[in-house]
Amino acid sequence: xxxxxxxxxxxxxxxxxxxxxxxxxxxxxxxxxxxxxxxxxxxxxxxxxxxxxxxxxxxxxxxxxxxxxxxxxxxxxxxxxxxxxxxxxxxxxxxxxxxxxxxxxxxxxxxxxxxxxxxxxxxxxxxxxxxxxxxxxxxxxxxxxxxxxxxxxxxxxxxxxxxxxxxxxxxxxxxxxxxxxxx
Amino acid sequence: xxxxxxxxxxxxxxxxxxxxxxxxxxxxxxxxxxxxxxxxxxxxxxxxxxxxxxxxxxxxxxxxxxxxxxxxxxxxxxxxxxxxxxxxxxxxxxxxxxxxxxxxxxxxxxxxxxxxxxxxxxxxxxxxxxxxxxxxxxxxxxxxxxxxxxxxxxxxxxxxxxxxxxxxxxxxxxxxxxxxxxxxxxxxxxxxxxxxxxxxxxxxxxxxxxxxx
Lengths: 183, 213
Known about the structure:
Chain A is α+β, with helices and mostly antiparallel strands. Helices cover about 35% and strands about 20% of the residues of chain A. Chains A and B meet through helix 1 of A and helix 4 and helix 5 of B.
């Protein structure tokens, strides 16, 4: 057999074996990773914005979504009426993707914003944003001005970009929210 | 070379960072915290030991002309496995190391040991070589991270529970803190200086040994 042919065959076999092995492990781990992420998100939602019930991700129901908005959840009160819309936003920060949750009450007031993930932040700088108050709680969606944190402008601006995207989307769907209830 | 020499050479004589200056991205990038250094060492241990053993096991059927692509496929497979397992079972560590896990594929130490040692020696020797090399690497990694985390933040925190802070330890109040802790050491520039100093010290010691001989 010609050498190049033999070599290609060896590499093909090796590739198949490696691919098979990876597919096998991925099969096992992807499920664990998925359920854990769902669980983490639910806990984050409950921890930061406690409501009686949450919908599943609604982002597929909206076209032309701003690329910063990755997921949208409806939160319901005890009367099964819509209480708030929670946006999961993602933008580029100083140390990687910044993920934050923006909660806007159905009456058009911002409940708050919470940064939940910030990639690899510089210790002592960007990670302070996890506890930073952006001073937008209870502000109207028509009139709010987030306060950023000096020394970690890039990451703070990533969070603010997420807030703006969420507010813009909320305004665009506000007229449709009246009829939504948890059933 | 005896088995003992083979094992010990990775700690000092052929230490991959201090003497061979290989795989320097990780010591510079992920040594901001001791926790990251431990995590990186664990991944590297998993990958290097398995890659050395596998490559040594298949060394007789690997044609010389295509050995590098074969090594890379073996290493990349192992790293991807480690990445998936870590994301599933050690999520916080996998988050804090981020892309550095995937970059282990191109860590020159692993390909270096495959090419320089495992492809020419039997499985047992390759295993011993891998363990010695990765332990030597891990010790330097952890040393750098200890220096950086203490100088940068004034203390060390590992897995949230095991922690100390020099300011708390000596009961320094907020406005009477130790003045010498600087954020500079957490930045890449601080990593360069500390790594440079360590390599310098290693050279001084090695040179003295040569002179006294």
